[in-house]
Each structure stands twice: as structure tokens, then as C-alpha cells.
Amino acid sequence: MAFWSSWFAPACADCTSKITEGEPVKVEGGVICPSCHDKREAAEAARLAEVEARRVAEEEARARFEDRKQFGSDPRNT
User: Fold this and answer.
1) What's residue 28's pLDDT?
2) Cβ atoms within 10 Å of 10's Cβ, excluding its own
3) 76 in a domain, yes or no?
4) Which pLDDT score, from 0 to 100, does residue 70 have?
5) 41 lies in which domain range?
6) Residue 41 is assigned to a structural domain of this protein
7) Residue 16 within a domain
8) What are the φ/ψ torsions at residue 74 (nearest 5 degrees)?
9) Disulfide check for 9: which of 18, 62, 66, 76 has CB 3.0–4.6 Å away?
10) In angstroms, what CA-CA distances link 51 with 3, 56, 57, 61?
């Protein structure tokens, strides 16, 4: 039966190989293999880390800008 199990195994939507080992993971685009699922999760984690780094950099730049402002003075002199 192992032959038929691999013959009729679902194909991964990302790498198009047959999913014979592990449980297939259902996603919005179909079914993917566990290794492709891990790759997707790693890419999403990297994207979220980049977004967080940008947010922190923007907050720091905004804080430096706000600290430089002097209220009550003529802005043309700064």
C-alpha cells in the first residue's frame, strides 16, 4: 500500500513535490508540505522583524525631531 499512498499523495502548492512525509498543512493556496510551511513561517517572522525595526527607527527619529523643537522661539532661527 505504500506505493499507492505515495502515488495519490497530494502535491505541495509551493514546491510541487508529493507530500509523503508528515502531515500536509492547509493554507489559503491549497496544501503545502511541512518544510515549505516552515519556510513561510520564517519569512513571515523576518518580515515582522523588519517592520518592527522600521517602527523603532521612526520612533527614534521622531523623538530626536521633537527634542530639537523649541516652543516659543522663532522657527526661522533654528
Assistant:
1) 83
2) 14
3) no
4) 64
5) 2-69
6) yes
7) yes
8) -75, 120
9) 18
10) 46, 9, 10, 15
Task: Give the SS3 label for residue 4.
Answer: helix
Tell me whether residue 52 is in a domain: yes
Q: Single out the residue of 32, 14, 15 nearest to residue 23, CA to CA.
A: 32
Residues 6 and 18 sit within 8 Å (Cβ to Cβ): yes
Q: How many domains does the chain have?
A: 1
Which amino acid is located at 35 in the chain?
S
Distance from CA of residue 58 to its chain's centroid? 20
Q: Tell which phi-psi region holds residue 27, choosing left (phi > 0), alpha (psi between -120 and 50) or beta.
A: beta
Q: Are 41 and 49 spatial neighbours (Cβ–Cβ below 8 Å)? A: no
The predicted-structure confidence for 41-69, as pLDDT tens digits, reads as follows: 999 999 999 999 999 999 999 988 887 76
Distance CA(29)–CA(69), nearest Å, equals: 50
